[in-house]
Amino acid sequence: MSARFSPFDRKKIFYGIILAVVSVYIFKLFQMQILAHAQFDAKSSDNSIKAIEQIALRGVFYDRNLQLLVENTPAYTVRITPADYDTTLNRKIETVLDLESGFISNMLYKNRVYSKFIPLRAKRGSDFSAIAWIEENKEHLPGVDYVIEMQRGYPDSVMGAHVFGYSKEISPQQLKKEEQYYQPGDLIGSIGLEKKYEKDLRGEKGYDYILVDSRRREVGKYKNGLNDVPSQKGKDLVLSLDGELQRIAEVELNGRAGAVVAIEPATGEVMVLASSPQFDLNQFSYVTPRDYLRQLLNDPLKPQYNRATMSAHPPGSTFKLLCAIAALDLGVITPSTTLFCGGSFNYGRSFKCHGSHGSLNVIQAIEKSCNVFFYQLIFKIGLDNLKSYATRFGFGKKLGIDINEEMRGLIPNSAYYEKIYGKNWPQGILVSLGIGQGEINVTPLQLANYCALIANNGKSFVPHLVKGYLDENKKFHSYKYKQVNVGIKQSVFDVVKEGMFLVVNGAGTATHVRINDIQIAGKTGTAQNPHGKDHALFVAFAPYGNPKIAVAVLVENVGFGATWAAPIAKKIIETYVRRSMPKKTEHVEKNKIEVQQGAEIFAD
Amino acid sequence: MRINYELNDRFDLTIFLSASLLVIIGLFAIYSSTQNTITQKGNFDKQLISWGISLFVFFFIFALPTKLLKLTAVPAYVLSILLLLVVLVIGRRIGGARSWIALGGFSFQPTEFAKLATILFLSHFLSRSETDLDNLKDIFIALAIGMTPIALIMLEPDLGSSFVFIGVILALLFWKGISLFGLAVVLSPGIVAVASLFGPIYFAVAIGLVIVILFYFKKDIILSGSILALNIASGFFVDNIYNILSPHQQRRIQTFIDPNADPLGSGYNAIQAKVAIGSGGFFGKGFLHGNQTQLQFIPEQWTDFIFCVIGEEFGFIGSIFVIILFLILFLRILRLASFAKNEFLSLVIIGILAVFFVHFLVNIGMAIGILPVIGIPLPFVSYGGSSLLINMALLGIILNIYRSRKEST
């Protein structure tokens, strides 16, 4: 038997070991935290490593010809780090920065849940005089500093407010969803392309590690910047917009409520997307002045509302093209079928035409925009067939353009009327649908898309505003978009397009926009407006034989489409087509255009 | 009162509440240390979920029939050895060691499971009526049972877990009643090995000590000679072990021997950890106000260095409170070891106590600069789902044994 411990002793030894270790640890903690506290505290305050976030340069916007539309410009941002800040300075700083009284305490309160070591932005885009004052009084302003940050700048006279959109400071709700990337005070795309392409535009943040002392003054770079992560610039987007055409559209709309959309038929690229009235994006590039916001909100025309993609009105006579396509494709008429117009159509009551057109075929009906022809046609097509064709051409649904602000519009079917009027809904409702009036709503974007599909014989791509992006080496990478094919016979398009050609070049409703050397095909429309004057509409494409551009124009509350909308479309088409034509013919044509301006034709 | 009495008779609230308080303190520290980091922001939520799952597992194990422990001892051990082999081949490397097995979206460390399996199997072997620790053969069998997982874990390499196993083996042998001579035989190679790390002079002194001990016990010359040879061999062998260690662990051992050799390199953590705790003072800097913590001075402060967060933000008061909670836990578990209805169950409790204690010893010792920086979490407090789960499971086993202490076999 060797020497050993009794069970009782073994337990005592375990007790002993546990108590010994705990005692040593308590003693050591006492020594560190109480006896040597001052020494450790000094060390802790002495040097600290701080990660300085480097916001990446936001990607810029180019137009289709690589003209710069949206850029970054440097601006001063004044920041407050709550951990070091002395709140008795509030009033002084608010005065210098021209902030509302109570702004800083409110900001500190809103951000109290975040770390006190993250600097908060008190003011973006500060005046230089305020920066000079901060620099002078640095010693007395603990926790106040300034940095140069980039804000959006808009170099060209193109506004494009609704397309480009703007960024806003991230909200606490968004921060909860996106906490992996954003910090309080970061900007995030709020509407338009800035929102849709946020992930492409923002790039990747970088981090600089610096050593700071107890007052968090920079002592030097941590490990000589070995651990620093450089920020990566966001992608520079190449838009399908054409800066020159966009500017023409904005100038021509001239502050009137309206919209212009132009699409390249073969590609679905949106070359113009103008909504009027505009608002000034420069006011949104940092903190938006309250007065300006109030002014925008109180404006009865609602400038922030994107009419090009969100305003839904009846398509008026522009819808006759769809009826013609549906009827020809279904075979309920042939190109030679004639119907009689005696000036009115009786269906329960009398529906008027704007003339007495006699016997005409579908091409002539489009040319003359004969209502009676289409009143009759709608009964041959049937409501649900009409809905099906309208859907194929993109009506009544979101097209999926690459900004979020988009409306579906409305195309009724029999189920829709049954819901409102019951099983035996009055068929008379159909009559006005044939000429695009009544319970039918479309957006200017949908009209442009529809016109582009007709121009390109039913084949195009989902309309989009961004072609692709440029990488660091200025190499272009294109984005892919979904192809669209409405699946309708070529012969149908030939007939309808001939009618559209005659609208401008025959005895039609828009002969005043005719140009000798550019063959424009179009269709006027007037959307009845129960609240005031009618809305003017015009859709057109050109050149007739080889369409390069399709345009839809809406001008609200002005009357006939031919008068107000068609000249805007003409100017855009002419500018675009002429730019790609040989130069020598240019001066000859200029004179002719002037002559035709101002002509008024009351047929629709 | 009667209900209360019955509850205490079947369930040890002291242990359960101490552990729960430690988890809650841990949650505060995890929140504080990760709310500022980009990659670890979700840790608080994950730990909360892990705690929920762990509580479920705890009560499940608590309710199982106690006899399962003995029945599963052998298969669990065999399985754990297999898993340790598997992890060396297909394991995922996290933080320098190949110690994780991923199954679908779920990953776990076989080492954690091996702790339990080794406790069960070793307790099983030691509690057999034929086992006699005066017989060196049985001592060597016991060592073989314990050293096999250690050898595999050293290959990952995971130094911290190896210490836990060594603690378990020593505690179980001691509790079983190994003789002083036997203890010397088991302990001396380890002491010699550690001494040899410090240099040839320390090595020589340790060998001298072994010779003195051998003279004291007056065993026969062959036995004494072979034990001396074993000690000398272990001193040389440790160099090979040292070479198996990953470079960062080698650096940490060097740093422990001389922490100021490389203050911005691997000694950096050790120094900053001490600064964090020391600067906490008596009351601490306050929740979310520790600049060492908030400015992320100490890497992995939500796992291995979590005690620094407590030390800095909750001060001496907070640190002592945590240590007292552990003290209560340990003393209570030790008390329960004598209540167990047979030797096997008593050994299991002691094995589990050793696991908790070594984690506590190494983790806090490392944070306050008494021990080298060895990556090992603080039980119940550190962030980590699988660590919390296994600790709660081990606690469940202890309370299970307590629950069934009066049942007949």
Structure description:
The complex is a heterodimer of chains A (604) and B (409). Chain A has 604 residues and is of the alpha+beta class. Chain A folds into two domains: 73-154, Penicillin-binding protein 2a (Domain 2), CATH 3.90.1310.10; 243-596, Beta-lactamase, CATH 3.40.710. In chain A, 36% of the residues lie in helices and 21% in strands. Chain A is built from 23 helices and 23 strands. In chain A, strands 2, 3, 4, 5, 10, 18 and 19 form a seven-stranded mixed sheet that branches. A five-stranded antiparallel sheet of chain A has the order 12-11-23-22-21. In chain A, a hairpin with a 1-residue loop joins strand 14 (344-347) and strand 15 (349-352). Chain B is mainly alpha-helical. In chain B, strands 1-2-3 form a three-stranded antiparallel sheet. Chain B contains 16 helices and three strands. In chain B, helix 6 runs antiparallel to helix 7, helix 7 (159-176) packs antiparallel against helix 15 and helix 8 (180-198) runs antiparallel to helix 9 (200-217). Chain B has one domain. The chains are: A alpha+beta (604), B mainly alpha (409). The interface between A and B is large, with 43 and 55 residues.
What's the helix count of chain A? 23
How many helical stretches of chain B?
Answer: 16
Overall geometry of chain A: elongated
Give the N-terminus to C-terminus distance of chain A in angstroms.
121 Å
CATH topology label of the largest domain in chain A: Beta-lactamase
CATH superfamily of the largest domain in chain A: DD-peptidase/beta-lactamase superfamily
Number of strands of chain A: 23
The sequence of SSEs of chain B as H and E is: HHHHEEEHHHHHHHHHHHH
Low-confidence stretches of chain B: none
Largest sheet report of chain A = 7 strands, mixed
Structural class of chain B: mainly alpha
Helix content range of chain B = over 70%
Strand content of chain B: under 5%
